[in-house]
Amino acid sequence: MILILGILSGGWNLLWILFAAFLIASVYGGIMIARKKYTRKNSFPFIPFLTVAYLGGMIGGVY
């Protein structure tokens, strides 16, 4: 998925997409740990965060 995004959007845009996706995922993970829904050993998929970051950038006019 990341390779496809890199080919379609370019190198610098891919870095911004990944930055936004990791930021959203870290905020989500922090909220879930604070709410005691997850522990540090749990995991969640990364693709939804990547999709939200890409669509948010497209709607916001960043990419």
H and E order: HHH
Based on Cα principal axes, name the global outline.
elongated
State the major sheet: none
Strand composition percent: under 5%
What is the alpha-carbon Rg in Å? 13 Å
Number of DSSP strand runs: 0
Helix content: over 70%
Q: State the separation between the terminal residues, measured CA to CA.
A: 17 Å
Query: Roughly what is the average pLDDT, rounded to an integer?
Result: 88
Give the number of helices: 3
**Derived structural class:** mainly alpha
Low-confidence runs of at least 5 consecutive residues: none
Q: Could you characterize the architecture of this molecule?
A:
The longest helix has 24 residues, at 11-34. The chain has helices at 2-9, 11-34, 47-60. The chain is elongated and about 40 Å long. It contains three helices and no strands. The two termini are 17 Å apart. Helix content is 73%, strand content 0%. By secondary structure, the protein is mostly helical.
Question: What is the fold's blueprint, element by element?
Answer:
Elements: H1 2-9, H2 11-34, H3 47-60
Helix pairs in contact: 1-2, 2-3
Features:
63 residues; 3 helices; mainly alpha
Question: How would you summarize this macromolecular structure in one to three sentences?
Answer:
The protein has 63 residues and is mainly α. Helices cover 73% and strands 0% of the residues.
